[in-house]
Design a protein that fits this description.
The complex is a heterodimer of chains A (50) and B (654).
Chain A (H helix, E strand, L loop, with lengths): L8 H21 L4 H16 L1
Chain B lengths: L1 E10 L2 E8 L8 E6 L5 H13 L21 E12 L2 E12 L2 E12 L5 E5 H11 L2 H4 L3 E3 H12 L4 H10 L3 H19 L5 H85 L9 H5 L1 H15 L12 H10 L13 H10 L7 H56 L3 H97 L4 E4 L5 E4 L8 H25 L8 E5 L7 H14 L2 E6 L1 H11 L3 E9 L7 E5 L3
Parallel strand pairs in B: 3-12, 3-13, 8-11, 11-12
Antiparallel strand pairs in B: 1-2, 1-4, 4-5, 5-6, 6-7, 9-10, 13-14
Helix pairs in contact in B: 4-14, 6-13, 7-12, 7-13, 9-12, 13-14, 13-15, 14-15, 15-16
Classes of the chains: A mainly alpha (50), B alpha/beta (654).
Chain lengths: 50, 654
């Protein structure tokens, strides 16, 4: 299955950068516990794909 | 993070309150702590770890850390506080353990700090612990608080090719951990999606088929129910009609009575008619003892008329024509001898015979006149009787006619009533029919109840299948979405792995260059060093286990690592905001010869903002000479009165 069937390459890049940014921020600040962060990332992905 | 000060109270051999301030000077960044074996160098290193994280791996029992001299006291406390500089702010972490009769009664942890607005803040318990982990995560602390044994262990691992710790350290310290965490999160998300049961199209189709089958059955059921209800209604109607008929049966008895009354009337009239007829007969014929009633007079009337005419004729016969002396006896004699005296034949029917008879009526013994009048009167009387009989007959006839008319009317009425009664069925048949219909209806009602119950079941089944279908559809839609998410997450995971690999590769190259540089400074060009992807470090020629070569590699590695960390921070924070890390070495030079100690001392101060070296006196002298003017603080640990249980800290002049 090709990802492009579901999301354009531009959108995918935006999603990738967004995840990287959020993960990096949280890694530095350690504000959010791991499980909560995983949920946040999952929501981010699903919001992108809806 | 830099460590400003440590204060110990009753921590192992540091009895009472003792403190040690560390150099935070960027130029003179080394704090040298010297002491003989057993003087408490390692204890200070342990005090750092206990204060920051609440545990010391070497001491599992909580009361082992309390100074021996305090264990016997009814109430005592042990306290270590560490003052730190982090991100421009001063933090003081205080961990206190209270003892009661030598046993731990409570532990408190408190973190004081002054925030950016200059206000004092304090955190306690878990919050203080969490904040401390933000400042320096426990898992990284092992790379900043190093004992001689740990360095030896790491060295041994390097030589045995077990350098996973280094790989982890590199990732953590170089800030690549967030890639690992991102990948871990994505893996977790992917696993979550995998655990979701995604129904196939087939599941939707199956649920739809079941739903359609239910709907068909429900339609059939509805038709059947309507049919049964119709039959029930029809039967109920029929029962009502039959019951009405039954009620009307009571009315039939009235008709019956009426008919009987009519019949009785008719019978009476019939009897009267018969009486009339009998009377007529009697009038006509008389009774058996009678002489024959009056009918003969009636029928004799014409004869009487004729006789009257004859009498009138006789009365009109002149008397002079009758022979004198003629007697009836003579006539009888002549007629009997059938010969007149004159000899003429006299026979009945002959004129002379008739003539004789005519005379008989007017000759003696009867006087003709008397006889004639009497006879005439008798005849008139009889004639009159005949006339009365006719009148009576006429009267009887009129009565009979009237009766006949009345009987005809009665017959007609009787016939009407009979017809009415005939129309009414037998009540027993009706009752049987009603009973039969009721039985059918009971059976139908039972059947209807079953049908309705079955319909309810089918309704439930239909609802369940509808729900199942909807859920399957929904799940199918969600499933498609999950497949989509899975696909994207899978790609993200792979791309982040690649990104991590690239970043790690890049950092590893920097690290290798930095380690090589540090190694060169320690060993000169007599050794070359190579680090593979798994951070296995190899030297050429191979390191000798018995010498401090391995440890030198660790120093070179740490030096290189901290150098790369600083470079990384330059990229993201800028020169003025570089985060500092202390390096606390406990007996680091125990396996090194003086030459290597000198080499390491040249390198280490350059790679970290703060160096604390706990060293035995003999090595300390060499180190002190080598480190020279970069030593900011210098302490000596001495056993009080030669006691193993009591150490004192003495500041040395620089």
């Amino acid at each position: 299955m090709n990802t492009e069937e579901f999301i354009s390459e531009n959108q995918y890049e935006r999603l990738f950068v967004e995840i990287e940014k959020k993960e990096h921020e949280n890694f530095r600040s350690k504000k959010m516990p791991e499980s909560q962060m995983a949920e946040k990332i999952q929501k981010l992905i699903e919001d992108f794909l809806r | 993070m830099l460590i400003k000060k440590i204060k110990l109270e009753n921590f192992r051999q540091f009895v009472g309150v003792q403190e040690m301030e560390f150099s935070t000077d960027r130029e003179r960044n080394v704090t040298l702590v010297m002491g003989n074996n057993g003087s408490g160098k390692t204890t200070i290193s342990q005090a750092f770890v206990w204060c920051l994280y609440g545990e010391v791996p070497e001491f599992r029992k909580k009361n082992e850390l309390l100074s021996d001299s305090k264990r016997g006291e009814a109430s005592s406390l042990m306290k270590v506080s560490v003052e730190m500089l982090h991100e421009g702010k001063r933090f003081t972490l205080i961990r206190t353990q209270h003892y009661h009769s030598g046993r731990v009664s409570s532990t408190q942890v408190q973190l004081d700090y002054v925030d950016n607005s200059g206000e004092f803040n304090a955190l306690w318990g878990e919050k203080a612990t969490e904040k401390m982990k933000e400042i320096l995560p426990q898992e990284l602390s092992q790379y900043f608080f190093l004992t001689g044994e740990e360095i030896e262990k790491m060295s041994s691992e390097i030589k045995m090719g077990q350098s996973k710790n280094f790989a982890d350290a590199v990732n953590s310290l170089l800030g690549l951990d967030y890639y690992k965490k991102t990948i871990k999160h994505l893996k977790g998300i992917f696993k979550k999606y995998e655990e979701i049961e995604i129904p196939s199209e087939n599941a939707v189709n199956l649920a739809t088929l079941s739903l359609n089958a239910d709907e068909t059955r429900l339609r059939d059921q509805k038709t059947e129910i309507e049919k049964v209800q119709k039959n029930l209604e029809k039967n109920r109607q029929e029962i009502l009609e039959k019951q009405m008929q039954l009620k009307s049966m009571k009315f039939s008895s009235e008709i019956q009575k009426k008919r009987e009354s009519l019949e009785s009337q008719r019978k009476e009239k019939q009897e009267r008619r018969e009486d009339f007829l009998k009377k007529a007969i009697l009038d006509f014929a008389g009774n058996t003892t009678d002489r024959g009633g009056e009918s003969p007079y009636f029928f004799a009337r014409s004869a009487y008329q004729k006789e009257l005419r004859t009498l009138n004729e006789i009365l009109s016969i002149p008397q002079s024509d009758v022979p004198e002396k003629l007697h009836a006896d003579l006539i009888d004699w002549i007629e009997s001898r059938q010969k007149c005296i004159c000899g003429a034949e006299v026979h009945e029917g002959q004129e002379n015979y008739d003539c004789l008879e005519k005379y008989r009526k007017i000759i003696p013994p009867e006087s003709i006149s008397t006889v004639t009048h009497r006879e005439s009167e008798r005849i008139v009387s009889k004639f009159r009787l005949g006339a009365k009989l006719f009148e009576n007959f006429q009267a009887i006839r009129r009565s009979v006619d009237t009766l006949d008319d009345e009987m005809d009317k009665l017959d007609k009425q009787i016939k009407e009533q009979t017809e009415k009664l005939e129309k009414m069925e037998d009540s027993s048949i009706l009752e049987k029919d009603i009973s039969q219909l009721k039985a059918w209806n009971e059976s139908n009602e039972e059947y209807l109840t079953q049908l309705l119950s079955r319909r309810a079941e089918l309704e439930n089944s239909r609802k369940a299948h509808e729900k199942e279908r909807d859920e399957a559809l929904q799940k199918s839609k969600e499933g498609q979405f999950i497949l989509k998410c899975k696909n994207v997450v899978d790609r993200l995971q792979k791309d982040f792995e690649n990104r991590h690999k690239e970043a790690e590769g890049s950092k590893r190259s920097e690290l290798i260059a930095a380690v090589k540089k540090a190694f060169l400074e320690i060993y000169g060009d007599s050794f070359s060093i190579e680090i593979d992807e798994k951070y296995n470090i190899e030297t050429n020629p191979p390191l000798e286990k018995s010498t401090g070569q391995g440890m030198s590699v660790i120093f070179a590695f740490l030096a290189g690592l901290l150098s790369v960390i600083r470079e990384s921070q330059k990229d993201s924070r800028g020169e003025n905001e570089l985060e500092s890390y202390p390096l606390v070495f406990d007996a680091p030079f125990s396996s090194l010869d003086e030459t290597r100690i000198a080499s390491v001392c040249k390198v280490l101060p350059k790679v970290s903002s703060q160096i604390m070296i706990f060293i035995k006196d003999t090595d300390g002298k060499v180190a002190k000479e080598e480190l020279g003017n970069i030593i900011g603080k210098n302490y000596v640990l001495k056993k009080k009165d030669g006691s193993e249980e009591h150490t004192e800290i003495f500041a040395e002049a620089i």
